Every structure is written in structure tokens, then in C-alpha cells.
Hints:
Structural class: alpha/beta
Amino acid sequence: MQPVILVTGSNGQLGKELQELAEVYPQFKFVFASREDLKLHHYGLVENFFIGIKPQYCINCAAYTAVDKAESEQDMAMLVNGEAVGHLAAVCKKYHTKLIHISTDYVFNGESETPYNEDAVTGPINTYGRSKLLGEQLCMQEYEDAIIIRTSWVYSQFGNNFVKTMMRLMSERNEINVVNDQIGSPTYAADLAKAILDIIASGKWESGIYHYSNEGKISWYEFALAIKKMIGSSCKVHPIPTSAYPTPAKRPHYSLLDKSKITATYGVAIPDWERSLQVCIEKLSNS
């Protein structure tokens, strides 16, 4: 019998990249469940789903990701990113399903000057971050054997993200403004998907929190300049401070994650952000 991997939130960026990668891991049977297929905040529905498919692993990509909208839809964000994760973790524990839950750099306040490791003090500064932190807490409370992977600045050939927005704006406008005082490292969702599946395929299970993003340290402005160069755009990109671009949700100024734990524990190879960006842009240009 092939081990079954259940992927929740399968229509999101990471879920779609896991679908793309599934055929590279023929030793597993994948079941992809979208938000419509499986409402995670409903314990009974989740339990029935598990009884039906008997997954050995669950990768929880389901999330409320509208960071600004979360400020006006706090209850929904807390339900999807918080309470629902607790339900899922409880069901995973009951049915001995190994759980990998995806979290975010937004659990931190962004005031550090060195990359955040897994033990760094959390302190989210917006509703989205608070909801994701609640999800982490409930996950570990319900199922201490779970793995949580925090990531940052996720983009992909799928869904809505910074890379696709920049490519569109640079084709439509002569000049754009991009924030230059928020620092971090992008994460190509295809790289994260491979890291997750390699962890499962390793047969080794070390529970706890891990950090993953691509290698490097840049601002959103530098990210935009790299996109401009790779697509050969003539659009002018102007650096602006965060204060010149107010948003409903505050953004952390510093989001760099220390990835040494995931590389030491699982030998995960982490590509440089520029190389991964080039791969994604080539896919988008060819599609």
C-alpha cells in the first residue's frame, strides 16, 4: 500500500506546486483537497474525510492569506488560520497522521537585526500574524509530534503574488514605486514544496518548528529591480519608504529567517533567491 499524503488548501500557491511535483514522488499517493472540498474549521467533516482516505501524512497549506483584509475580517482570519488548525491537528493525532503545517515570518515583530531562528520571541504586529501564531500554538497544543514550517514572501507561477503583480505593472506602466525599507528573502513555492516532500520521503521525523525561505537578503525594491532585469522591462522603479505606502495591516520591517535547523536536520538544499526567481519567470514567460 502506498502511503497517502493529504494536501489541504490545494488551490493555493504551495498546493498547486505540490500538485506539479507529485509525479516525481511515485512512492506516495496524493489526495488534494481545496477549501471547497474540506472545511477545516468543521471537526466532524475533517474526521469523516480522514476515515475515508486514511492519510499517513497531511500537509496543511490551507490559510487565510489576505493580509490587509484580515484587519476587517478578524474573526474569519482567526477561524481559518487559528481554530481550524487546532481541529486538524487533533484529528491528525487521533488517526496517527503525521502533520506538516505551514506558517509565516509574520509571527515576528520585524524589529530584529539578525535572522530569526525558531526559538526567537514571537510578537505579531497585525491580525494575519496573530492568527497564524494562534494556529502554531493550537497545532502544538493538540499534537506535539507535528512539524511547523515558517516561510516568507512566497511567490509562484500560480495564484496572486508579488512577482506576477510586478510583471503585470511593468508591462502596463512607465514607472512604479516599491518599498525599499522592508528586508527579507523571497520563497519560491516550488522550492518549498520540494523541501516538504523530501522531508517526508526521508523517512525521518523530527517534530518542531523549522524555517525555510530561499537564500539571500533583499528589500522589495531590490526584488522588483531583479524582476525588471529578468523580463527586460524599461519601466522605471522608484524606491519609497513604507511610510509613503500606508496599508491597513502593518508590515514587519525585517523578515529574514535563519534556515540552519532545517538544513542540519534534513539536509535540505536551499537555492539562492535569484536562481529560483529566474526559474519561475521562465515558466511564467512560457505559459
